[in-house]
Structure formats: C-alpha cells, structure tokens
Specification:
By secondary structure, the chain is of the alpha/beta class. It is built from 18 helices and ten strands.
Length: 470
C-alpha cells in the first residue's frame, strides 16, 4: 500500500510538471514592439537625421563603416578595424581627433552586427571587454546546450517564442544588458544600422526609425539584442524574429520619392522596386506581421542601405543635402568583408561531396557572386560620387549668384578590407578557411583582429585619406 501511494504521488508530480510545461509553452511570447502614436522626425535613429545629432563630429567629413556577415570571424575582423581607427589620428577643423571619433554610421549584418551594436551602446568600452565577453566565448556551444535544458522546453515549445528569442535573451546576458535603441541614441555615437532580411517580401529590413515609421512603431524602445538576433538568424538554425506591423495608425504617408517612383513606367528601376515593396508594408491588414531572418540573405556586406538611400534622390548632391551634409568635402567609406573561401579541398578528391557540405557550398556560390557584383557597383558609385557632388554644388551656387570658389573641394575614398588583399598566401588561406560559426579559438580571434588592422593600414585609399587629413 505504501509503495502504491508513493508511485501515485510521483505520477501526480510528473503530471503537474508536464502540465506546467504545456502552459508555459502556450503562453511564452516574443516581446511585442511598441506602437508609435505619431511620426517623430527629430529622432537621431534615422538615416536622414543622424548628422544633425553628430555631437563633436565634423560636418566637413563623413565616415561610414559596413560590417559583413560571417559569424565570429566577421565580428573579430570588424573589431580589428575599430582598433585601427582608434589608433589613427587626423586633423579636423584644426583639432587632432581619432578617425574612430568621426564615424557617422555603421551598417552591419549577421556576425558584424555584434561588434556594431556593442560599440553603439558602449563606445570605447568595447576595447576593454568585448573579447572576453563575446569573441573568445563559445556562444554556439552555449546556445546548443540550452536546447537540452527542461526549463527551456517550456518556452521554445511556443509558436511565439523560438530559438532566436532564446538567443536574444542570451545576448542580453553576456553583452547587451537589456539595453534598447534609446540607449544607443543617448550615447550620441554613430548611427547603428543593423540589417536583417524580411521573409514575406524578400527584401532587406533595416533597424532605423525610417523603417519603423512605415510600421508605426517606436525603434527607441526596441531591444538591441532582438535586432542582433534577427540580423544573425540563419534559417534552419534559428527561428525568425517577429515584429508587429501597426501601419496606418500614426499618420505616416509614402514620401514624395515613393509616389513619383510608383508612377515610373520603368518597372525595372530600383526606386520603383523599393516603392512597391514599401507600399505593401503600409497595408497592415494584409501584412500584420514582419518575419525577419539573417541579413546576409539580402546583403552580406551591409552596403545596401547606402545604395538604397542614394536611389531615393535624383543625384549625389541631393543625397548629401538630404543627409544634412552639404558642407562635407571628404567621404570615407570602409567595407569590412569577412567572406570565406570556397571548399577547395573537394577539388582534390574524386568521391561525392557530403550532403551538409554540398548545401553549405551551394548556398555560398550565389552569396559570393552577389558580393562581388555589389562591390563592383559600389566602386562605380563612389567613383561617380565626387564628380556628381562637385557638379551639383557648383551649379547650385552659380544659380544662386554665390561665390563658387571651393565648390569643387570634394573627395571620396572607398576602402575594402578583404582577406584577398593579404600578401601572405598562407595567412590568407588560413583566415578564409576559418568556419562561419560563433565558436572560434583565441588564436583564430587574435589572427582575425591583426588582419583587420593590417589590411586597413595596407590600403592605398586609406593611407591617401590619412595623408589628405594631416
């Protein structure tokens, strides 16, 4: 009889435990993004107004950084570039300043978003503890281990709380301290534009207030960890990050460029393509939820936002004015590309390639090709930038009867930090073969940091910029 009672109690406890799991699995929910009552065009969290809140940054120099995807490999390479920018000084407005202090915007995807977000929140603190807190941590192993914990089952069993939400919670624990975009805004550093990919419309989604205006949502209240989780949510390994769409409730209207673009007979133009996509966001009844995955699916370099905003205007001079950068005479744009090499080892064997490697390799082919095409297009854009700005600025002053002296004082510098530019063949191949994961050895991290510094210092364009800024 005693044994029967004991078993009965055990079964009762087990039943209660299972019921509690089911209840929590049904009730666990992602943090809902806050609704915006009216559009606030003063926020510094928007691409078009960040320059107005530049603090001590000069309006005569515009510096942008783009951090690519690639797991911890990308995070560490980007970190090395930040270290180099911290150590290099230039003269701006008669004062000596670090190049890092003049950075206006950092656009990032996937692995690069961890470095960008941490710097956006904490500034120079990144040089004190980012290695210890993230670069040298087995993040991947920890996230895998969490999946075997019973209390985790209580949450990820919910259709409203997936593996990306679990990852975001962990990122808050080790890095972001439950900070929101309001904390980035309060620090007064560069605009941090984290990018993901929207699943339904198949286009890039940028965490800026410009993008959130369309959804009638408040970016300042949004957790930084969720933005980073979305930017690095590799499909299959992570779930999507879901955002509620409140479009139509805050008085937002399609901007003038969009209305003009929708009437463009050339339906292959970039402006028409963007306007048509944004118009779909405005119908919240048909698109009440936004589902986000890894930013590398649409742009693994983080350079598309720059090109996208350029397409909103007719020319580069109008673009600078839109950005409140009319006085700029030098633009420096640094792209940190942590792209890996192809799986060359299989060219040495005659057997079939294993399934997992086949999937990874096939996925990398279009990504690498798109990256090459995107960089080629960016080079052309930057080459034309100086010419177009000079023509527009001089013509505007001439038409106003103003003095045109110095209107042609403008120069653009494009720097691409890429493993392919390393002169040491052995080092280059070693770095390109580092896996795209969130678990690297301290030796690999150190090699990537050093490569970021070396590649930037070896860049002819960057050295020209430093010489011109003496």
């Amino acid at each position: 009889m005693i044994k029967t009672i004991t078993i009965g109690k055990s079964l009762k406890k087990l039943s209660l435990f299972l019921i509690s799991i089911l209840i929590q699995a049904c009730t666990a929910h992602y943090p809902v993004n806050e609704q915006l009552a009216t559009v606030d065009f003063v926020s510094s969290l928007r691409f078009t107004s960040a320059a107005e809140h530049a603090g001590g940054r000069s309006d005569k120099l515009t510096v942008g950084l783009a951090f690519s995807g690639g797991g911890t490999r990308a995070s560490a390479l980007s970190y090395g570039v930040l270290e180099a920018l911290r150590d290099d000084n230039i003269r701006v407005g008669g004062n000596e300043r670090r190049v890092l202090d003049e950075v206006d915007v950092i656009s990032s995807v996937s692995g690069g978003s961890f470095t960008a977000a941490y710097y956006g929140l904490f500034g120079d603190r990144i040089f004190e503890d980012f290695e210890e807190k993230f670069l040298n941590v087995n993040v991947q192993g920890h996230l895998k281990g969490d999946l075997f914990k019973p209390w985790v089952w209580m949450t990820i069993g919910s259709p409203y709380y997936g593996r990306s939400e679990l990852a975001a919670d962990y990122y808050d624990e080790i890095l972001f301290e439950n900070k929101t975009y309001a904390d980035i805004e309060e620090r007064g550093g560069p605009l941090i534009q984290i990018n993901a990919s929207e699943f339904t419309l198949g286009m890039q989604f940028s965490f800026t207030q410009n993008q959130f205006d369309i959804l009638c949502s408040d970016l300042s209240a949004f957790p930084v960890s969720r933005a980073v989780a979305a930017s690095s949510a590799v499909p299959g390994l992570f779930s999507d990050v879901t955002i509620n769409n409140y479009a139509g409730s805050c008085g937002y209207q399609m901007p003038a460029w969009g209305k003009i673009a929708l009437n463009d007979p050339d339906t292959t133009s970039r402006r028409y393509y963007l306007a048509r996509k944004y118009k779909q966001y405005l119908d919240s009844e048909k698109l009440p939820y936004i589902h986000l995955f890894d930013g590398g699916l649409t742009d693994n370099l983080g350079i598309q936002p720059f090109q996208r905003h350029m397409s909103f205007t007719e020319d580069a001079w109008t673009f600078l004015k839109l950005m409140h950068r009319e006085n700029t005479n030098k633009v420096l744009f640094i792209v940190v590309n942590a792209q890996p090499g192809q799986m060359r080892k299989y060219s040495l064997v005659g057997s079939n390639i294993p399934l997992f490697d086949t999937i990874a390799g096939v996925s990398a082919i279009p990504l690498n090709e798109y990256t090459f095409v995107a960089l080629t297009h960016l080079r052309t854009t930057m080459e034309n930038l100086a010419k177009n700005v000079i023509e527009g600025r001089c013509a505007e002053r001439r038409n106003k009867g103003e003095d045109i002296e110095g209107c042609d004082d403008f120069k653009a510098y494009l720097v691409v930090v890429d493993f392919d530019d390393l002169k040491d063949d052995e080092k280059r191949e070693m770095l390109k073969e580092i896996p795209t994961s969130f678990s690297l050895t301290s030796e690999q991290v150190a090699a990537l940091r050093q490569a970021g510094k070396q590649l930037l210092q070896d860049s002819v364009a960057y050295q020209q910029f430093l010489n011109d800024m003496k």
